[in-house]
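I have been asked to look over a protein record a colleague put together. Thanks in advance; the entry in question is below.
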Amino acid sequence: MAFGGVNPIDRYMAEGSVAAQAPLPRTLGSEGAGTVENRPVLVHGGGLGAVRDGVWARAAVVPRDSVHDLPEGVELRHAAAMGVAGLTAWQVVHELGQVSGEDRVLVLGASGGVGCVIVSLCHSLGAVVWGQTGSQDKAAAIQEDGAERVVVAGPDELGEAIADLQPTVVFDPLGDGFVRPSVEALPVRGKIVSFGTSAGAEVQFNLQTLYRKHGSILGYGGMGLTPEERRRGLHNALNALRDGQLRVRIDEVLPLDQVNDAFRRLVERRVRGNLLLDLS
């Protein structure tokens, strides 16, 4: 193993709120990148870190189906974040959002590990992309990833800030108070794609507003993918990374013994992109 990705799901496993009945002790780490017989590979899937040992170690024994060969030119440090952030971005943009060059896209949490990939991918498809963040300090990075405009707003300010966009697709990893203004901003047949609730899982909005617009809210959970869906999605996402259609922003590579600091930074939203662990 060379690098391991750090994701909210890894923290949930460490806390015991996910996979609480799984064997103990066990090594955590649901994704990473390294080599098998001198071949560069991404390692992800097969219950790594949950129902069996994960990959936060110098070497890992994993199911063969969890090993994904890298296209030529893809760096290990970028591949290490593709099992969660890259795959999620590809699936929500192509399979659920079905984004095209005709769309107006709003990416909530655009500076996050998945959000930054979504911004770059939608930009490469020719869509108009706006990115939301709660911090002005993160605005420049979001623009670098391809956002035409950055909206610095919390839930109370979001509605007014995005009124001119009328987003046809909203990508939402936040939930909580961000859902209501997103529903209100949708045009007819607009979509919200939900793939996280980092701001809160309980939401309130006017259901009439949604159905009178023929609007829809679509949910994505990576753990619900079949092995074939996961492998196909990773293949497409890795090829898109190779071809420059999406980019993975790496905030920092930390030593393995600083994993708790990585968890704190995720909770406090002090991350621009993805965090990695150095496993070498």
Summary: The chain has a mean pLDDT of 96.
